[in-house]
Amino acid sequence: MNLKDIGENDLKSNLKLVSKKKPDQKTVVDVKNHKIGGDKLTIIAGPCTVESKEQIMDIAKNISERGAHMMRGGVFKPITFPYGDPLARPDKGSDKSEPDKDYIPDKKELLKTAERRLKYMAEAGKKYELPVVTEVIYSDTFDMMNKYVDMFQIGYRSMMNFDLLRTVAGTKKPVLLKRHAGESLRAFLGAAEHIIAHGNPNIVLCERGIMVPHTHRPESRHILDVQAVPALNEYTHLPVILDPSHSTFHRPYVAPMSRASIAAGADGIEIEVHPEIEGGAWVDPLNPLDYTEFKKLMIELKGIGKVLGKSI
Ligand code: PEP
Ligand code: MN
């Protein structure tokens, strides 16, 4: 057996809380009365980052009209280099000047900006009845974020940040746990086991692309592991969703991979939607669907769900 594979002993001893005890065991996670993992599919849509109050209000209105159940949006971004953090920019449309490209914001400033944007998100979520999910990066921001968010996202880079896993467990709020692109399902389920073992069973797993030797296009950094859906469904009772935006990184691939995710048996998808698709988004400008594309996709997903006995 490859050491990265899940063995019988893992299921009994190491993954005792996340593993299935009976073939039909399934957890339903409740996010502010929206249920993830039942007979209804969950579509989480929204921008990569919250850019202004007007932007998030407009996106919330348009995704809710098209049938989304929850809204996503980043207020902290994992960035590869320390310079030019997009979230250090003033709100889109404001008359404040842009920081220069080498600017490194201090944490206090990032926190203040993030809180202002979380307020926008919470207000938009409330108005359009969309529970909101956003990524948490720093353990010491949970108390501040807890007031505004309905679900915490642990990004792929943080899957093995055990301090973050413990702290998110302590909040008892639902968690959207993303799989690291270089990690096995064994390690992914191990991260979920940490959260449950520390007291929070409300976890939704999210596959968002894995590292492979080639990816069809230079911008597609990862490949969506659709096979992870039946594999995870075999091992665990936790709901499973997929993120076709961050895996394909290429807009024309996003709708086909969303359809494939639902067809493979996922409980939903998390997808980036932004009104300006031609490079308008502050972060990840190459992958968001616009409102028209999102509407078309929702109709297609409804059809696929119907065949499988799941409504949207
Ligand atoms: C995101 O969803 O905003 C994000 C950064 O995703 P990932 O952690 O999958 O890269
Ligand atoms: Mn993004």
Can you describe this structure in just a few lines?
With 312 residues, this protein is an alpha/beta fold.
Structural class: alpha/beta
End-to-end separation: 39 Å
Give the strand order, joined by hyphens, for the main sheet. 3-4-5-6-7-8-9-10
What is the H-and-E element order?
HEEEHEHEHEHEHEHEHHEH
Radius of gyration: 19 Å
Could you report the average pLDDT, rounded to the nearest whole number?
A: 96
| Ions, cofactors and other bound molecules | phosphoenolpyruvate, manganese (II) ion
Residue share in β-strands: 5-15%
In DSSP terms (H or I, runs of 4 or more residues), the helix count works out at 10
Weakly predicted, low-confidence segments: none
Main pleated sheet = 8 strands, parallel, barrel
Quick one: how many beta strands?
10
The geometry reads as: globular
Into which percent range does the helicity of residues fall?
A: 25-40%
Characterization of this structure:
The protein is an alpha/beta fold and 312 residues long. The chain has ten helices and ten strands. Strands 3-4-5-6-7-8-9-10 form an eight-stranded parallel β-barrel, surrounded by six helices. The protein has a two-stranded antiparallel sheet with strand order 1-2. α2 packs parallel to α3 and α5 (162-171) crosses α6. The mean pLDDT is 96. Manganese (II) ion binds at residues 48, 246, 272, 283-284.
